[in-house]
Amino acid sequence: MSEFFAMGGYGAYVWGSLAVFFVVLGIDAAAPLVKRRRVLRELRGRLKRAQKRNEESA
Amino acid sequence: MNPLVLWFHKLGSPPYFYRLAGRLLPWLWGLAAIGIAAGLYGGLVLAPPDYQQSDAFRIIYIHVPSAWMSLFIYFFMAVNGFIALVWRIKLSEILAMAAAPVGAAFTFICLATGSLWGKPMWGTWWTWDARLTSELVLLFLYLGVIGLYHAIEDRRQAARAAAFLALIGIVNLPIVHFSVKWWNTLHQGSTVKLFGPSLIDSRMLWPLLIMAVATKFAFAASLLSRARVDLLELESGKDWARQIALAEETSA
């Protein structure tokens, strides 16, 4: 098992590459989820303000 | 009208696309995850070590699929940019601009893992040779498209300006691809060939091909995930977007 992790002495390079792959793709996958929450929050805020204005003018 | 054309028109409708993308997303992410797991198991565990590079060659299972994706996504972005410029289709603008950050991510992975592979095999992290430099230019093109898109206030004008830049940058794709043939370079030539036999043992080849397919699914998933949020933002004044915002509030 430790032989597998050593990767013939190239462990740092092989596992480093794997880490780069998963970290970058993880950020890539998370970015639209974060943006989605922000967009929906802003949209709800705008709707609430519009509703308030309507109530005040009525 | 013919049903395929009809479906194409329907796909261009933002609420329909939003719902369809939402339904496809879990499947695309699932297929990407299964493919990446299988490809990496095949590449890191089952494939025999290389006779020259021993276990260092296993970086190929990250590096080469990412390099293929960096070119594939650029082509996808440029084609959608072309459609956006000529036919002014809103969905194409959105898809072109959503593809740019995913392409930049894969290009970055390609460059970083190439560096991690170059150090033990060539003795250097970086060299200014044709393949490496043209791939770096590709990253800058992606960053240029993203930067231009965010520098212009009006979203649709921004998308068209950035699409134009993407279209000009397409000249770099053949340069990246043929750089190992046209110039003397440290980088090796193509091992896997679309036409003619590949210069690689089949036990080493199949995990690479699975990774190539899996990264396509990861791209599709990230693309749709980004495109539907961008549509929601672009159409936030429309009724369907309001309904989604209110529905999420009651469920959250």
TrEMBL record, chain A:
The chain crosses the membrane at residues 12-34. It is a single-pass membrane protein. It is found in: Cell inner membrane. Pfam families: CcmD. It comes from the Bacteria. InterPro entries: Haem_export_protD_CcmD, Heme_exporter_D. Its main location: membrane. Keywords: Cell inner membrane, Cell membrane, Cytochrome c-type biogenesis, Membrane, Transmembrane, Transmembrane helix, Transport. Belongs to the CcmD/CycX/HelD family. Required for the export of heme to the periplasm for the biogenesis of c-type cytochromes. This is Heme exporter protein D. It comes from Tahibacter harae.
TrEMBL record, chain B:
The chain crosses the membrane at residues 27-47, 67-87, 94-116, 136-152, 164-184, 204-224. It is found in: Cell inner membrane; Membrane. Keywords: Cell inner membrane, Cell membrane, Cytochrome c-type biogenesis, Membrane, Transmembrane, Transmembrane helix, Transport. Its main location: membrane. It comes from the Bacteria. The keyword Transmembrane applies. Residues 4-187 form the Cytochrome c assembly protein domain. It is a multi-pass membrane protein. Belongs to the CcmC/CycZ/HelC family. NCBIfam families: ccmC (TIGR01191). Required for the export of heme to the periplasm for the biogenesis of c-type cytochromes. This is Heme exporter protein C.
